[in-house]
Amino acid sequence: MLLEEINKATNKELKDKGLVSNILKEMKILEIELDIYSSQLKDSYYCLPERPDISFYLLWMSVNRAYRDFYLKNKTMDSETVMGAEMVNKITNHLSDQISSTHTIESLMIEYINNYGEQMFNFISNIILKGLCTEKYCKENSLTSKSYTTSQFKTMKNRFENVVKAIEETYLKKYYDNLNDIKQDINKTKVLIESSAINHSILRSLSKQLSELLKREKVKFSQGSFFEEIQLSDNDFVMMYYQTLNAIRNSNIHGNGNSRLSSPNAKKKYMKSSEVTYLAAYFYFGLEMYMLGEVTLKDLSIFEENLKII
Fold first, then answer.
1. What is the pTM of this model?
2. Which DSSP helix (H) or strand (E) runs through 54?
3. Which of 80, 94, 139, 239 gives a 20 to 30 Å CA spacing to 176?
4. If phi over 0 gives left and psi between -120 and 50 gives alpha, with beta otherwise, what is residue 215?
5. Cα separation of 240 and 119, whole Å?
């Protein structure tokens, strides 16, 4: 009934242009008894057809609340960062739980990752490469890099030090040397980076490697005398699944004109990315509810069904 109401309320003009997300017509909804979650989720569903940026933000509010509730139940953590990490640890311990005859929690997470598409991995690659370029530029110009690098990059570097170090050793020099320009803005509050066509090619190469890494493959990073094989541990796998979604929530990718399907600048290709990202985050929220004991393992089977609409 709720989904029917939302679909009726959706702007007809946008529907006619093909700029409305249709996943609500087939999407399976997780039944949550707690009012605070059901209320936030309802708001999220209402925004999804026309404003996936706001819809994702509202969904992520529920994700954040879930790990805070986990904190209140356990009272063993003392910061938001630690709270999020403890939820990741809890999920890690349940990766082998069998949702159905065909999927464990881990295999279903990988199925969602398989649908991310190039745009998602380009986004993460861009965060890392531009963060490394900013650090290098700051070092060369005696600036404090922490003032200029993004929070997304800092999180990635702190949490996945070996991955970022391998990227620095194998991709940074060529990427940095082929920039069209890198400089401070007029107010000296940002480092502006202008990429070239060669940079885009390098970005796509790294995106492919990050894609394989997040799918639990062993990835080789090599350049000159540097060589390292990296395979994510169970905990790093869950953390990277979470952090890629969290990085998007903290970025403009879900807040710019292209991802707002109501914008005149909207493009159909962004709709698919927005839908996949939303459903992947919705699954993560479902895992949190399972860790909190609010839903059963059987309840998570709806996320298998939701894969079919991507």
1. 0.88
2. helix 52-74
3. 239
4. alpha
5. 16
